[in-house]
């Protein structure tokens, strides 16, 4: 776990920028994904950041957690909204574990 989320976010952004300077096409492609995701403003920034934070938890990306937590703060998310988004991530992970458990049991039973 990171002891200092603000410094981690700063480090990630600096590192990301340095990598983007060295490989600009990669950074442009990544930026295009983010631009496409925000296209037409169907979801507001706060909602997108809450979703991003929940997805970051489900994908276990600590740097993503830090960056999107900071962006959620900037977008005006409340702790209650963040907790609700995280509860959704927790529920989804539990659901995924449940359905993969069913698959594991099927695999086990087919091996008999």
TrEMBL record:
Species in which this protein is naturally found: Pasteurella dagmatis ATCC 43325
SUPFAM superfamilies listed in its UniProt record: AhpD-like (SSF69118)
Pfam families: CMD
Domain of life: Bacteria
Gene name for this UniProt entry: pcaC
A single MF term (Gene Ontology): 4-carboxymuconolactone decarboxylase activity
The name this protein goes by in its record: Alkylhydroperoxidase AhpD family core domain protein
PANTHER family per the UniProt record, alphabetical: ALKYL HYDROPEROXIDE REDUCTASE AHPD (PTHR33930), BLR3452 PROTEIN (PTHR33930:SF2)
Carboxymuconolactone decarboxylase-like domain residues: 24-107
Keyword annotations: Lyase, Oxidoreductase, Peroxidase
Gene3D superfamilies: AhpD-like (1.20.1290.10)
Enzyme Commission number, as recorded: 4.1.1.44
NCBIfam families named among the record's database cross-references: ahpD_dom
UniProt enzyme class: lyase
Transmembrane stretches, start-end: none
InterPro entries: AhpD-like, AhpD_core, CMD-like
Keyword GTP-binding: no
């Amino acid at each position: 776990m990171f002891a200092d989320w603000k410094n981690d976010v700063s480090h990630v952004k600096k590192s990301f920028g340095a990598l983007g300077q060295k490989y600009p096409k990669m950074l442009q492609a990544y930026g295009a994904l983010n631009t496409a995701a925000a296209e037409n403003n169907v979801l507001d920034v706060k909602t997108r950041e809450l979703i991003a934070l929940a997805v970051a938890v489900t994908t276990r990306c600590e740097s993503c957690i830090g960056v999107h937590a900071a962006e959620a703060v900037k977008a005006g998310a409340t702790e209650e909204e963040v907790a609700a988004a995280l509860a959704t991530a927790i529920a989804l992970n539990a659901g995924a574990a449940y359905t993969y458990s069913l698959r594991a049991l099927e695999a086990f039973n087919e091996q008999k």
